[in-house]
C-alpha cells in the first residue's frame, strides 16, 4: 500500500500525475489530505478539474503558526499511518504538510519518498527551505527533478543510491492538462484579454507579503508596470495575500485583482501572457515549460535551471527593480529548452514505489 500525503494547492496539482498513474495501474493506495488548504478555490476545484478521486482522509488542520500546524498534521498523519500501515509514503515539495507528513512517517519506520527532492534556495529565512532540508534528510527515496537537484543532495552527503532523477511532475501535469484546458475553458474571452497583451501575477511568499513595506513596494511595482505598458495586469490573489492587502488598507490602482483560478484557467492565462510576475515556485517552472517569460519577485530561487535556460529573471521586491526587470524580460524570445523532463516523472515515481513495496 502507498500513502499519498498532500494538503495545499501545488501539492494537489503536482501529485495529480502520480495519483493518475496509481489509478491506471490499479495499485493499492490512499490519499491523505491534511486540510492545510481548505478554501474551495485552493482545494476542491483541483480535485474536480483534474478528476481526482476524493481523499480517503482529511485532517482539516487549517491555518496556524508553523509549530501548531506542523504538530496537528503530525498527530493526524500518525493516526492514519498506524491504521493503514502503508509500506511507503509519498510527500511532495516543501510545505508544512510535506515536512510533518514525512517526519511522522519516518518515526513510524514507514519509508518516505520525497517528490521534488534536492531543491535549495540556500536561504534559511524561507520556511520552505527548512522543510526541504529536513524532508530530504529523512527520506528513503529522493525523486530529484533535475541533475542540479541531485547534485545538491549528493553535496549534503545523501547516498546516491537513494536518489532517482525523474524530472518534475509539473511537466506531466502541464502536458496532461493544456489540451483539456483549450477544450474546456476560454478564460481570455471571459476576461476580455488578448493573447500576449496582458501580464499575469501571483504573490504569496511569507517573506514578501507578510512584510508591509515589501508588499507595498510589490504593489507599487505592479502598478508602474501597468502604467508603462498600458496592458491589463491580472492578479489572482492568494488568500494569505488577500488578508494582508486588506490589513494594509490601501487602494490598489489599475490591477485586475481576482479570486484564485482553477488550474485549467490559470494554465491558459499563463500560456498566453506577455510575461508572468510571480514569487511562486510552480509558476517559475510552468512558465519555463510553456515558453513564457517570467520575472520572479524574489532575491533568490531554488529553481536556478530557469535562470540558466533564460526563461526567468530575479527582479527582487522593490518597485524600481520590478519595473526595470519587466522592461528587460518582456521582449525575451522564447525557445529555451525545458530542463524539467519530458512528462513521465509520475510514471517513474510510481514504478519505483511499486517495486519498493515488496522489498
Ligand atoms: C503554503 C506553503 C507554501 C506554498 C503555499 C502554496 C508552508 C509553510 N507554506 O503557504 O510553501 O507555496 O502553501 O500556495 O507550508 N488560507 C485560506 N484558505 C486556504 C489556505 C490558506 O484562507 O485554503 C489563508 C489562511 O488565513 C492562512 C493563510 O492563508 O493563515 C496562509 O496559509 P498557509 O497554508 O499557512 O500558508 P500559505 O501561504 O498558503
Ligand atoms: N495556480 C492556480 N491558480 C491560480 C494561481 C496558481 O491553479 O490562481 C497554480 C499554478 O498553476 C501552479 C500552482 O498553483 O501549478 C502554484 O501554487 P503556489 O504558487 O500556490 O505554490 P508554490 O508553487 O509557490 O509552492
What is the topological layout?
Layout: E1 2-6, H1 9-24, E2 29-33, H2 44-49, E3 57-58, H3 66-84, E4 88-92, H4 96-107, E5 111-115, H5 127-138, E6 141-144, H6 147-155, E7 163-165, H7 169-184, H8 187-191, E8 199-202, H9 206-209, H10 212-229, E9 233-236, H11 239-248, E10 255-258, H12 263-272, E11 275-278, H13 281-290, E12 294-296, H14 304-309, E13 312-314, H15 319-329, H16 345-357
Parallel strand pairs: 1-2, 1-4, 2-3, 4-5, 5-6, 6-7, 8-9, 8-11, 9-10, 11-12, 12-13
The chain binds uridine-diphosphate-N-acetylglucosamine (UD1) and uridine-5'-diphosphate (UDP).
Please, could you describe this protein's structure?
- This protein is α/β, with parallel strands linked by helices.
- 49% of the residues lie in helices and 14% in strands.
- It has two domains: 184 residues, 3-Layer(aba) Sandwich (Rossmann fold), CATH 3.40.50; 154 residues, Glycogen Phosphorylase B (Rossmann fold, 3-Layer(aba) Sandwich).
- A seven-stranded parallel β-sheet has the order 3-2-1-4-5-6-7, with helices on both faces. A six-stranded parallel β-sheet has the order 10-9-8-11-12-13, sandwiched between helices.
- Helix 6 links the parallel strand 6 and strand 7.
- Helix 1 packs across helix 7, helix 4 runs parallel beside helix 5 and helix 10 packs across helix 15.
- It is globular and about 60 Å long.
- Uridine-5'-diphosphate binds next to helix 1, helix 12 and helix 13.
- It comes from Methanoculleus thermophilus.
- This is UDP-N-acetylglucosamine 2-epimerase (Non-hydrolysing).
Amino acid at each position: 500500500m502507498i500513502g499519498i500525503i498532500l494538503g495545499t494547492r501545488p501539492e494537489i496539482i503536482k501529485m495529480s500525475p502520480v495519483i493518475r498513474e496509481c489509478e491506471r495501474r490499479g495499485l493499492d493506495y490512499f490519499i491523505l489530505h491534511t486540510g492545510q488548504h481548505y478554501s474551495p478555490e485552493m482545494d476542491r476545484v483541483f480535485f474536480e478539474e483534474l478528476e481526482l478521486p476524493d481523499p480517503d482522509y482529511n485532517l482539516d488542520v487549517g491555518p496556524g503558526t508553523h509549530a501548531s500546524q506542523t504538530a496537528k498534521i503530525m498527530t493526524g498523519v500518525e493516526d492514519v499511518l498506524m491504521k493503514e500501515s502503508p509500506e511507503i509514503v509519498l510527500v511532495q515539495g516543501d510545505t508544512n504538510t510535506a515536512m510533518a507528513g514525512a517526519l511522522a512517517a519516518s518515526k513510524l519506520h514507514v519509508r518516505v519518498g520525497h517528490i521534488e527532492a534536492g531543491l535549495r534556495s540556500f536561504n534559511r529565512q524561507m520556511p520552505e527551505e527548512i522543510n526541504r532540508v529536513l524532508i530530504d534528510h529523512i527520506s528513503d527515496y529522493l525523486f530529484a527533478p533535475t541533475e542540479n537537484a541531485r547534485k545538491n543532495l549528493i553535496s549534503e552527503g545523501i547516498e546516491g543510491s537513494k536518489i532517482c532523477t525523474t524530472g518534475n511532475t509539473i511537466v506531466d501535469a502541464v502536458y496532461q492538462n493544456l489540451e483539456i484546458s483549450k477544450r474546456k475553458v476560454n478564460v481570455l474571452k471571459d476576461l476580455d484579454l488578448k493573447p500576449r497583451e496582458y501580464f499575469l501575477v501571483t504573490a504569496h511568499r511569507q517573506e514578501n507579503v507578510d512584510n508591509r513595506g515589501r508588499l507595498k513596494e510589490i504593489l507599487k511595482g505592479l502598478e508602474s508596470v501597468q502604467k508603462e505598458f498600458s496592458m491589463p495586469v491580472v492578479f489572482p490573489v492568494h488568500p494569505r495575500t488577500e488578508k494582508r492587502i486588506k490589513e494594509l488598507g490601501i487602494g490598489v490602482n489599475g490591477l485586475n485583482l481576482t479570486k484564485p483560478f482553477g488550474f485549467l484557467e490559470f494554465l491558459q492565462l499563463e500560456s498566453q501572457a506577455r510575461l508572468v510576475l510571480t514569487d511562486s515556485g510552480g509558476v517559475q517552472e510552468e512558465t519555463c515549460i510553456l515558453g513564457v517569460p517570467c520575472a520572479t519577485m524574489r532575491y533568490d530561487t531554488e529553481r536556478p535551471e530557469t535562470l540558466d535556460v533564460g526563461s526567468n529573471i530575479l527582479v527582487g521586491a522593490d518597485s524600481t527593480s520590478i519595473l526595470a526587470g519587466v522592461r528587460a524580460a518582456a521582449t525575451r524570445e522564447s525557445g529555451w529548452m525545458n530542463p524539467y523532463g519530458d512528462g513521465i516523472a509520475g510514471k517513474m515515481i510510481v514504478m519505483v514505489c511499486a517495486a519498493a513495496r515488496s522489498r
